[in-house]
Write a structure and sequence with these properties.
Blueprint lengths: L2 H6 L4 H29 L2 H19 L23
Keywords: Endoplasmic reticulum, Membrane, Transmembrane, Transmembrane helix
Function: Component of the signal peptidase complex (SPC) which catalyzes the cleavage of N-terminal signal sequences from nascent proteins as they are translocated into the lumen of the endoplasmic reticulum. Dispensable for SPC enzymatic activity.
Organism: Suillus placidus
Length: 85
């Protein structure tokens, strides 16, 4: 993967849906687990730290345009046959 491909950030529509599903599941799960662990240790610091680490890890998974998010690229039609006015 080149730097230009990373900067463009191209993913297809199904890849966007997959990334959205991953984000939704991981954020809900990490929120619940962070709360439970923080409550067990009676520490807001542990709760926030655990949630922050989960959020950073999630960002590393879904923010770069990994090839797994571009299995179904959109094929655009050519503009032939249209006159310019």
């Amino acid at each position: 993967m080149t730097i230009q491909e990373l900067a463009e950030g191209r993913i297809d529509f199904k890849g966007q849906k997959t990334a959205d599903d991953i984000v939704r599941v991981v954020l809900i799960t990490s929120t619940f687990l962070s709360f439970v662990v923080g409550f067990a240790f009676s520490s807001l610091m542990i709760t926030m730290s655990m949630f922050a680490l989960c959020t950073v890890a999630l960002s590393l998974v879904v923010l770069p345009p990994w090839p797994m998010f571009n299995h179904h690229p959109v094929i655009w039609l050519s503009a032939q046959g249209h006159s310019q006015k």
